[in-house]
Amino acid sequence: MLAICFVATTPATATAAPLPVSYDFNTGIVAELTNPNGSLPGTNDWSCRPSPAHPRPVVLVHGGFASQQVNWGVYGPLLKNEGYCVYGLTYGQIDNAPWPLSAIGALDPLEDDAAELSAFVDRVRTSTRASEVDIISHSQGSLVSGYYAKFLGGKDIVSNLVALGALWNGTAGPAGEDYLQEMHEQLGLSGALSIPLCPACLQAVEGSDFITTLNADGSPYVSGVKYTNIATKYDELVIPYTAGLTPGPAGTAVHNIVVQDGCAIDRTAHRGLAATRRVAAFVLNALDEASHRPAPCAVVEPNSGVG
């Protein structure tokens, strides 16, 4: 009993025994199926204390129709192994929804989602005693994170905002219905449910009031935050893919990366941005200015989610 009490009350460091990392987006889906509404290995350890090497906790902000587990099966254990304190939330679900509906987030208005993120970041900062955080977002999560940084005080809290498949200018393509149907099938919901009402889906479309507000002063960015946008030419949801590569005006820090620059054989599509080794190298370099790890180049097939 004494040993149990000691473990429960002693702050954890960000370093731990290595966790298995599979560069496959489906890892997160399997995690959700086997541990409904849970947290990925390496994430949401509220006793974690950031190390001097990585003083900022990392907050993972999922994309549309996903959850903290579904979206981040690669990055939870990967970042923990790299020595970070890592946190993820599922936001914007249908109120009081049973599982597996509770595993489908980012449905609520994006302004509400950003408020949820703000409250979660405050909890992370209180727990870790960190003054700043880094954010990694995917897809619709870029809009949630960007709104938080620009309008809800995040500009003084977020050091790095890494956006995978960002939607800064909105998408001219379908607002995610095909992706939701795929998630329904993988969670065993095919044919059982209609597509839930999703105000956020309409807000992510090019020309929406939300996109116009986010870009009202000429860009979605705010000074003081370092933005890294990572896009793929084979993105089937962010159309055109350059919608996530908005140039940064004077006074902002923006670095745009296209996966295929220097690696034409990598045909990563939208969800693969949250799974491949190449993108992971870009992300780790963005989080740590002292990191200069090479980004591997390998054949990746569109929509495989494996890389």
CATH architecture: 3-Layer(aba) Sandwich
Distance from first to last alpha carbon: 44 Å
Query: Roughly what percent helix?
Result: 25-40%
CATH topology name, in short, is Rossmann fold
CATH homologous group name: Alpha/Beta hydrolase fold, catalytic domain
Query: Which class of secondary structure composition applies to the elements?
Result: alpha/beta
Count of alpha and pi helical runs: 10
CATH class assignment:
Alpha Beta
Indicate how many domains the architecture comprises. 1
Biggest sheet strand order reads 4-3-5-6-7-8
Mean pLDDT: 90
Number of strands: 8
Q: What percentage of the residues does DSSP assign to strands (E)?
A: 5-15%
Give, in order, the helices and strands. HEHEEHHEHEHEHHHEEH
Overall geometric form: globular
Give a verbal description of the structure.
The protein is an alpha/beta fold and 307 residues long. The chain is 30% helix and 12% strand. Helix 2 links the parallel strand 1 (12-13) and strand 2 (48-49). The termini are far apart.
Task: Sum up the structure in keywords.
single chain; 307 residues; alpha/beta; Rossmann fold; six-stranded parallel beta sheet; 10 helices; 30% helix; disordered N terminus
